[in-house]
Amino acid sequence: MTQAAIIWVDADACPNVIKDILFRAAVRTKTETILIANQPISTPSSPLIRAIQVSAGFDVADNEIVQRCNKGDLVITQDIPLASEVIDKGALALSPRGELFTRENIRARLNIRDFMDTMRSSGIQTGGPPALNQSDRMAFANQLDKWLAQQPKK
């Protein structure tokens, strides 16, 4: 019997509205969901949902997720290098905007990220991403539901 897949959340930067969608889905589908963060994260009272606080520091939460996730798990993150690492382990990565990162698209996303970092470090203001909107939330919920539908029934 295969182990049930887990949803891992890079929780420090995950918008609350996305966490709420995840919490409802975890309870509805009985899917273990674990939030990893450098700070305390409140979660609903459910045996399926828990938060793990790691020490502060660069990439500490990311490294914890990479270490703990397994093939077939889902990782919620907008961190492109983290997404690349979990994909290499056989997990899937989904951004809070509903973009599914795959082996096919992650290299291009890393290249764009590195290019933008180079621009910012040379003093060019690139601005941040736009605010999360309703279509982003819907795209996220749709991708999450697709992944959940592919999981073995409990």
TrEMBL record:
Q: Which CDD domains does this one have?
A: PIN_YqxD-like
NCBIfam families this protein is in? PRK00124.1
The entry's family comment says:
Belongs to the UPF0178 family.
What this protein is called in its record is UPF0178 protein C8D97_11282
- What's the source species for this entry? Pleionea mediterranea
